[in-house]
């Protein structure tokens, strides 16, 4: 929130300003120029910039495919690494070197909160999956139960420790800077962890639910870039002067079509469709359920006689994929607009400089964040089958209750079902 | 976060500054005066100020007791009203009249997010309790199931609508103000709703778990005030120059003793100890469990012979109350320090002026927020009995599964227990 004293403020000292000069020199003009020179179509340097961008894009996509091949745990690890990089970029964004020198250990507090948030988000998730990995080991079972039971208390304790630490290190004349940093830290953690906890949940519900949305965003970005590159002329929104209607519409059509086709391709691999309930990396096999069973549709009558196929097979999940495609192309770009607006408000060019031609990690993640949450909620609301919820509760019983309690529950359930005359045996 | 351009900044216009003058004139000096004149002991106006404060305190406590008597739903309603007032105070805090005039409808966005957060926090909770209120009505059961199922999606949709609305109404030269307001809104909602959702959960776990912590904070505040009033001489912390070590220590001892005694008194009423699982306001009866069963302790030998009692009865919950008392007197005050620091950083006297002598609602709620979360997590981690978790899962089964699914689950559980040779019949 507190870039303002940083740049363009005569009272801020030169050290601080130097730190940010690199990022803040190339701010694009606020108003699109009337000759259209800001669009890629007319940019003379566009081929060199495209080359750099293509090169790093290929590397990123290649690495991504390799990680998908390696499996759930590796994808999770990737998400965590991205989280750390994003948090670092964002923590550094509103840093002021001069103030920080007078507040030793203040930076550490950010990371204290970061790791508390991590323990909170992943602790329970991790231990629940751990139980499924090793149900036979009594000692480990107890340890995991202990962690599950007290995890919330431990996290709360850590948070309060950070809170007290913050208050005890408040320094006169620094109050405003410190409070702003505190709030900014919370906003970052909220953003980073809400999004990534949904992403990790998607991964373990089946890589499909992570891979499809993520791919659609990448496809939409690339298509928007290419359509804009070759046809872009009409400006779309003032916040991002380089974005054009041609890019937006071309990308939407491409993304929705891709969603429909990709869902069919991804839906064929058990590796992508099966949920993973333990923490092993072994082979997965499951009944992927009716969502991924192809249904035969005969083609409409107006298809000419000479056309070789008379029918086509479509998985029900493909219709849902259309919803994801629609979201990825219409709503998710607002994540990008938000990031652009933020950068414009605080006079930044990029959030960082980790990826050549793309800016920081955060610049690539803006739309991914929006769609990960959507995919999770869509999956929970419209896809997760009823049977799965029986399974979920059963898992809960086996994980959280002792054997005596399981018997107790069984007895009580029997009694209730008997009373209602629903017990058939 | 963005008070800075507001006060003491020569560039801000006079309209804005007028709006805040009332609250910002009486800022206490940053450094305690060496003659000790800042302490209440030496304040000549202290009796008048104490009278006003006592008067409104009595009204507040009276109203509070009446609401406790009315029951869970009314307490909940009180929490919601307090939430709305707190949010209003905090939303207004960083408002700038001049900017707002140029952004019609921008204030509405805050309340859009507020009600989305409310639907998110209470929607599920409400509908789950509603199911217990009226299990016989098939139609209502379906409606509630529908809400439970799609509530998350509806809330997400509303949030995204607000997000898009925000981006589309971004106005040139207002970016920084708008983004700061957006972040500030999120911080407020995070603070207000995290705290109040825990509070409401406590209320329905048994009013005891809401009433005891809340009372301890009030007792600690009053005791600190009185001890400081009569004995306070040694300054405690620079953030709150009126707070003294005498007040802090006297209040701690008082609070811990009160916790032990109050737990015994509150623990005798089923109205306070029974959890409420429906939304009616009728009489409660339950087995309050071993926590509230008095145990007999014989007094130690050094108690003189003439002392009439040879033994005393203590409820196990009283030992837990000591933990609450300790927290209320040692950690919770940091909530107050945080608020003081915040007010000092942004040069405010109070958060509002709703309660004569006390300032705004937020000024009275700062420590309540910290302890409500603690009480919830403490209850979940150390109090909630094992039996209760069997009951919880059973509730979940009866609420969320259809009859067929309940039978399916029963069958599967039978199979698993048989396999493990734990089924005794």
TrEMBL record, chains A, B:
Co-factor(s): Mg(2+)
Name of the protein in question: Phosphatidate cytidylyltransferase
GO molecular function: phosphatidate cytidylyltransferase activity
UniProtKB keywords: Lipid biosynthesis, Lipid metabolism, Membrane, Nucleotidyltransferase, Phospholipid biosynthesis, Phospholipid metabolism, Transferase, Transmembrane, Transmembrane helix
Keyword Nucleotidyltransferase included in the entry's annotation: yes
Subcellular localization: Membrane
Recorded metabolic or biological pathway in which this protein acts: Phospholipid metabolism; CDP-diacylglycerol biosynthesis; CDP-diacylglycerol from sn-glycerol 3-phosphate: step 3/3; Lipid metabolism
Family statement: Belongs to the CDS family.
Chain residue ranges for the region called Disordered: 1-37
PROSITE patterns named in the record: CDS (PS01315)
EC number of this enzyme: 2.7.7.41
PANTHER family: PHOSPHATIDATE CYTIDYLYLTRANSFERASE, PHOSPHATIDATE CYTIDYLYLTRANSFERASE, PHOTORECEPTOR-SPECIFIC
A biological process from GO: CDP-diacylglycerol biosynthetic process
Function: May be involved in the synthesis of minor phospholipids and in modulation of IP3-mediated signal transduction.
Main location: membrane
Membrane topology value: Multi-pass membrane protein
Cofactor-binding details, from the entry: Requires a divalent cation for activity.
